[in-house]
Amino acid sequence: MSIPILQVSLKDRSILDPVLKRAREDLSSTLNLVKPIIEDVQKRGDAALRDYTRKFDGTVPDSFVLELSSLHPKIDSDLEIALQKAAENIQAFHKIQIPEDKEITVHGNRLGIRHTPVESVSVYAPGGKALYPSTILMGVIPAKLAGVKNIQIVTPPQQGALPDGLIAAAKIAGADRIILAGGAQGIAAVAYGTETIPASEFVIGPGSKFVTAAKVFLSGQGVIGIDSPAGPSEVLVVADDSANPTWVAADLLSQAEHGEDSVAILCTDSLSLAQKVAEEVEKALHERPKRGEMKRKSIEDHGRIFVFPNLEECFAFSDLFAPEHLEIQTKNYREDLKKINHAGSVFLGNYSPVAMGDYISGTNHILPTAGAARIYSSLGVATFLKRVTWQEVSRDSLKDLYPHVKVLSEFEGLDEEHGTSVKIRT
């Protein structure tokens, strides 16, 4: 079989630990490659961007900036309807994420929270092994709902014309322009700005290891905000004997279709289901040969079927793994959801494949990977909002609380000015 079946328990750390750690790429070597590119683009702007675009993409556009107001894409009516429906569903789901401004009275003082958007965002849309108009919708629509005023798409230039499907998705989502620049050089260009390219405060979206390294480096320098460090796509399926093995196999392969480094794991308490899924994976690899070598390498190198003693251990392993995508195909999937604390996005029941979230259901597909779901959330409206707190202190409360300020400021050695600034008002 192309996908290994392993009977394990949570105690088998020698087997599980390498999977839990993933083959996390050591970004240090990639950072060493991208830092000179970033610094060169910062210094030389468009001239450096032209040099790197010619070197890495083999083509240099007449202009790096395409204003969407001047573009009129022509696409198949079915594609247009699909993009419009996806946008409609994404907007409907993300609208419920818009937070309310609030205030409360504490010890006689009015305290509150306002939510304010970042000013500008760039959404990276990969252009290598596949084109992703869906990523444009996922990135732009939440930003628009948050109130971001300036949104641009960053995508590598094509050898021919930019596909009308990408342009249409950008217009439907409500972006302002498209920047034809890829890789670390594209990230640097939108982070610092050039003679022709506006700078952005926030950069989101998946990309190559060079894109990820550039985002991480620039975020660490305080130049931009980012969503989360992105790695290979991954799915973990928890299933019992009620699951359909053909469907589970298709879900594992749908992640393998992303790339050779994609991760696809099934956790089950049923050896019978495990064997049937492995057979269906092999059958599908023969029957559906498109991207066949890529899918097979992904499944052989990064695919696993773990048979645990019970479902409790399956869910415990899932929480340790913190998958980008988690499918729960069990008899009691609603109850089982309560056992999960760490996952990018969860797909419940036999009729909820990851592909629904990738395209059309309305949840976001820009998700934390490689265990980052333990500390990061999926992209959403809140990604683009800052919490601004405010307070209005009353004179009576200031007098009443001053003795406590005096004690605290003296303990910290800051009473001369901190303490005095309150005392003189009493």
TrEMBL record:
UniProt pathway annotation: Amino-acid biosynthesis; L-histidine biosynthesis; L-histidine from 5-phospho-alpha-D-ribose 1-diphosphate: step 9/9
Active site, renumbered: 324 (proton acceptor), 325 (proton acceptor)
EC number, UniProt record: 1.1.1.23
InterPro entries given in the database record: Ald_DH/histidinol_DH, Histidinol_DH_CS, Histidinol_DH_monofunct, Hstdl_DH
A Pfam family of this chain: Histidinol_dh
Cofactor(s), names only, from the UniProt record: Zn(2+)
Keywords: Amino-acid biosynthesis, Histidine biosynthesis, Metal-binding, NAD, Oxidoreductase, Zinc
Main EC class the enzyme belongs to: oxidoreductase
Described purpose of this protein according to its UniProt entry: Catalyzes the sequential NAD-dependent oxidations of L-histidinol to L-histidinaldehyde and then to L-histidine.
Similarity comment text for this entry: Belongs to the histidinol dehydrogenase family.
Protein name: Histidinol dehydrogenase
Organism this protein belongs to: Leptospira yasudae
